[in-house]
C-alpha cells in the first residue's frame, strides 16, 4: 500500500528546498530513462518552478527535450546504492528500470516515470525551454504540475524527519558515491543581537 | 587560529554539491550585507560556476549588481540561529554584521565579505550577468575565483563528516526556520542488477 499523498503545488518547492540529490526521469517515443542529479534547486514558489543541471551527454536530456517534460524523484537513504548506480551508467544501451528492477508508474499529468517505493517524494515538471542557459550552463528550468510525498515523512506541507522514518531520510551527494544523509531535524530561533 | 585552507578551484563545486543552505554576501560603495539562501547549486566543474536565487526585493541583489561579485559561505550547524536570522531580516536598515557580531574578512580576490568562524567553507564568485534568468527566475550565475574550507571537515578536495566535527556539519533548510543537519556520511556501492 502506498503512503504517497498529493502535495499542494504551492508547497512543491519544499520537497527539494533542502538540497537533496534527486533522480531525474523522462520518457519519450517508447523509451525511458532515469539518472541522478545532485545539482537542482527551486527557483520560485508560485508558480512552482525548479532548475536542474542536465549534462549535454546524457540520454535523459534527449528524452526531456523530446517529451517536453521530466520527473523528479527524491530518493530515501535506502536507495543510496541505486541512486549512485543510475547516476554512473548511461541509459542509451539499457533500460535501467528493467536492469535494476525499478518499479515506476506514469505520472498523473505528464506521464513521466515516477517512483514511490523507497522515495520520499516526486514531482512532475513541464519543461520550460531556455536555450541559452541550457547551452551555457546545462541548466534546465521546469514548472511543477503535480507532486506527491510519502506521508510518513512529508505531510500537510511539512517535512518531519524522525528516528522512525530513517529509510526515507534524504541523500546529499558529496562526490564519488559518498553521501551524507540529512537526519537531525532542528528548529532555529532568533539569536539575540550582539 | 583559523583552520581554513585554500580549496583548488576544480574542487570548488564540491563545497555546495550536497545542497547546503548558504550565506550570500556582497559589499559595494561602503555598504555590505549578508543573507541566507537555500536555493543554490553548482552548474559546472571547470570553470567552477554556480547558480543562486536572489530575490528582486533583497538588498544583497543591489550590492551584487553594483560590485559585480558575491561571496558564498557555508554555515556549520552551530550557526543555525544566525543563518535563520540573516535570512529573515533585511540589511537595508541595519548592518547585520555589526548587529549580530559577525566577524567577516575581505575575500582575497574580490574583497567580498567572508566568514570563517562557524563556517565550513566559503567561495568568492564573480557575477556573470544573465539578464533574462535574473529577471524571469531570480537566478544569478557566478564563477568561483577563490575558495577555502575548514580542514577539519573538508581537506584535500574531500568532505569528511565525523562525530568530531558536528559543529561544522552543514545545514539544509526545510522551511520556516526548520533545518535538517547533514551528518551521517556513507559510501555507496553498486547494486547487483535484478
TrEMBL record, chains A, B:
SUPFAM superfamilies: FMN-binding split barrel. GO terms for molecular function: oxidoreductase activity. The keyword Flavoprotein applies. Its cofactor is FMN. It is an enzyme of class 1 (oxidoreductase). Residues 14-156 form the Flavin reductase like domain. SMART domains: Flavin_Reduct. InterPro entries: Flavin_Rdtase-like_dom (IPR002563), Flavoredoxin (IPR052174), Split_barrel_FMN-bd (IPR012349). The keyword Flavoprotein applies. Keywords: Flavoprotein, Oxidoreductase. Belongs to the flavoredoxin family. This is Flavin reductase family protein.
Amino acid at each position: 500500500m502506498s503512503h504517497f499523498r498529493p502535495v499542494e503545488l504551492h508547497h512543491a518547492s519544499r520537497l527539494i528546498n533542502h538540497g537533496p540529490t534527486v533522480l531525474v526521469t523522462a520518457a519519450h517515443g517508447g523509451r525511458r530513462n532515469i539518472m541522478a542529479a545532485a545539482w537542482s534547486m527551486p527557483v520560485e514558489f508560485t508558480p512552482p518552478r525548479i532548475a536542474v543541471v542536465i549534462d549535454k551527454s546524457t540520454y535523459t536530456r534527449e528524452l526531456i527535450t523530446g517529451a517536453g517534460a521530466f520527473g523528479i524523484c527524491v530518493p530515501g537513504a535506502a536507495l543510496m546504492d541505486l541512486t549512485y548506480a543510475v547516476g554512473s551508467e548511461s541509459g542509451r544501451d539499457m533500460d535501467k528500470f528493467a536492469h535494476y528492477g525499478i518499479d515506476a508508474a506514469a505520472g498523473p499529468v505528464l506521464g513521466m516515470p515516477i517512483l514511490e517505493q523507497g522515495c520520499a517524494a516526486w514531482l512532475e515538471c513541464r519543461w520550460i525551454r531556455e536555450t541559452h542557459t541550457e547551452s551555457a550552463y546545462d541548466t534546465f528550468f521546469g514548472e511543477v504540475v503535480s507532486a506527491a510525498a510519502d506521508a510518513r515523512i512529508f505531510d500537510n506541507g511539512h517535512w518531519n524527519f524522525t528516528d522512525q522514518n530513517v529509510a526515507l531520510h534524504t541523500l546529499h551527494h558529496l562526490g564519488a558515491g559518498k553521501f551524507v544523509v540529512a537526519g537531525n531535524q532542528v528548529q532555529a530561533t532568533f539569536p539575540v543581537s550582539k
